[in-house]
Sequence to fold (451 residues):
Amino acid sequence: MSLRVAIVGGGPAGIFAADLLTRSEVDVSVDILERLPAPFGLVRYGVAPDHPRIKEIIKALQRVLVHPDVRLLGNVDLGDDIKLEELREFYDAVVVATGARSDRTLDIPGEDLPGSYGAAEFVSWYDAHPDAPRAWPLEAEHVAVLGAGNVALDVARVLAKTADEMLTTDIPAHVHQGLRAKRATDVHVFARRGPAYAKFSPLELRELAHSPNVDVIVHPEGFEVDDASMEHIGRNKQAKMVLDTLANWVGREPTGKPHRIHLHFLEQPVAIDGERAVETLRTERTRLVGDGSVEGTGLVTNWDVQAVYRAVGYRSSSVVGLPFDDRAAVVPNDGGRVLDLDGTRIPGTFVTGWIKRGPIGLIGHTKSDAAETITHLVAETTPTATSRAPEDVDAFLVERGVDVADLDHWLRLDQHEIDLGDAAGRTRVKVAGREDMLAAGRAVVGTAIGA
Fold:
């Protein structure tokens, strides 16, 4: 008898798991349940629009979706449209791959002031996530970005570049209009550690300086490299490339471009101040202590900024029906096998991706992570579902009134976005609103649907 498996989450983690299942030695049929009307998760809604080559992975992910043993059930939300215990009626195993969509907090005073934002919220807006607001406040002239990873660079770059520079990307009209209204002249990026430990990718860092409208300034204060830093870059080729690039920029004078990105190292945010909204960021200078870590020096600087973006990492959210370790922000598991709060196995229930291990690692880690989970699933799962035909779950969702966006729906939406791009001289223009996405997916290709 064929195994029936539900994968909750249509991002890379879930799709890699589906791919591994179809390549395994067992006869299996897989349904991918995705809460949005479009698949691909953070590849579609977490990658900056001016980095289209990173999205090339979508081509590989789409090849999995068209496999005859894989079905996409989009616009289906676990918890609202179907419960975990109801999934067990239709599937022998459930793999939860819901990822991480929320922002980590810094737990510093003033973090909740108006004008203090999580980077993930801003990324969702400029990536036209269907659940994101249509407008974003961009009145600040001086902005702080907290973090030393690629998301911090993305946020800084989008804030600093002109709106028209983004017109080669897939942003829809409302994002372009919002960016045209922004007033930022100076964007300050703060990292609590030294430059050798920045998590930037070398390519993303170099691209920071490609805009004809942006000067990149690496401030010499805090640009320190000790023996431990040298040992670190000696073991890490990418870290060395990043450090080399930063070192070449230290002390460069602005050339008079209208916008500037400032990179500050060894500056730890300690408070955000303001009476009714963000007015000041307070940082404490840190120093290297010889083992890769830092400690505070007591030297405090106040930075006049009107907005703060916290790019200090993503955080997974709890999943309805599953135990959740709130401190680690993961579902408790043993190699992907979900554990109850008392440490016992929950039969037929698995996790993969960031909800399993936390929001760390790149695509390669996600693949190996899925391999571990699927190995356990294949070895341990036996047929238990009582309603085994694909039509059974389809009928259940119809009865619930769920407007399921299947693969054909996605392919029509995909083609519609490509058509919008053709008309605008671009590769693609995203459809932003959930209802517009659903309408475009229902329409015959070529029918006009608003973006």
Observations:
- The first helix runs from residue 12 to 23.
- The CA atoms of residues 312 and 435 lie 32 Å apart.
- Residues 445-451 have pLDDT under 50 and may be disordered.
- The domain at 102-314 is CATH 3.50.50.60 (FAD/NAD(P)-binding domain).
